[in-house]
From TrEMBL:
Main localization of the protein described in the UniProt heading: cytoplasm
Keywords, ordered alphabetically: Coiled coil, Cytoplasm, mRNA transport, Nuclear pore complex, Nucleus, Protein transport, Translocation, Transport
InterPro entries in alphabetical order: GLE1, GLE1-like_sf
Record-level Gene Ontology MF annotations: inositol hexakisphosphate binding; phospholipid binding; translation initiation factor binding
Lineage: Eukaryota, Metazoa, Chordata, Craniata, Vertebrata
Subcellular location: Cytoplasm; Nucleus, Nuclear pore complex
Highest taxon above the source species: Eukaryota
Protein family membership: Belongs to the GLE1 family.
Entry keyword Transport: yes
Any Gene Ontology biological process: poly(A)+ mRNA export from nucleus
Known function: Required for the export of mRNAs containing poly(A) tails from the nucleus into the cytoplasm. May be involved in the terminal step of the mRNA transport through the nuclear pore complex (NPC).
Secreted among keywords: no
The protein, known as: mRNA export factor GLE1
Amino acid sequence: AGSQLREIFDKINNLLSGKSVVSGGRTVSVTQHPQGLDFVYYKLAEKFVNQGEEEVASHHDAAFPIAVVASGIWEIHPRVGDLFLAHLHKKCPYSVPFYPALKEGTSMEEYQRMLGYQVKDSKVEEQDHFLKRMSGLIRLYAAIIQLRWPYGNKQGPHPHGLNYGWRWLAQMLNMEPLADVTATLLLDFLEVCGNALMKQYQVQFWKIMLLIREDYIPRIEAITSSGQMGSLMRFKQFLEKCLQQKEVPLPKGALQSSFWRS
């Protein structure tokens, strides 16, 4: 409920502002240690990113309540935003977007970690699990860039707004696609913030959607094996529907104004 989110937001904001907050039955304040605030900034940013790969990965709708709090905290405490991006880029290089290249002298295990895979006891996680986590992270990012905390004073621009989403999309399309990964993440991204990008960029947005259909989809097809077609087919269907209807639907789970009265 909206009222619950406000409580969570206020508690985090109070903690970062140096006020005393009750947590786990104890009263804590960042002023109790000279590095207290730095530590809390770091851990909070890490927690937001973890929620992307855990909660949002399992429940896509969760992206919006988490993102609106993260966005509001970022606006008041810019350091959290910087650290959020650092944690996000490390866990999901595709959020930069960046595809690390295999350099000489790098072990395969280390390289897979650089690509965002979890490696435990020399065992690499399953591709499905990996893609699910990456989807959660990209969806959280796509939600943050379009949402603002509705109770702020909103004097300046969004600290990391839709222009960053536009840049991310353009950069993705300037890179050679990766089988499975590229189609999955483009679909995740456009499902979450395609509607907002469409409203903001209008004609330019539809030009980029046509470019994806005419030029980029064939490039993904060329590197996709028959066993990896699922994500590409879903992306193509989404794209065709949007182009036919000249509309990107509002994302499922988007917070309506009625939510804040709950």
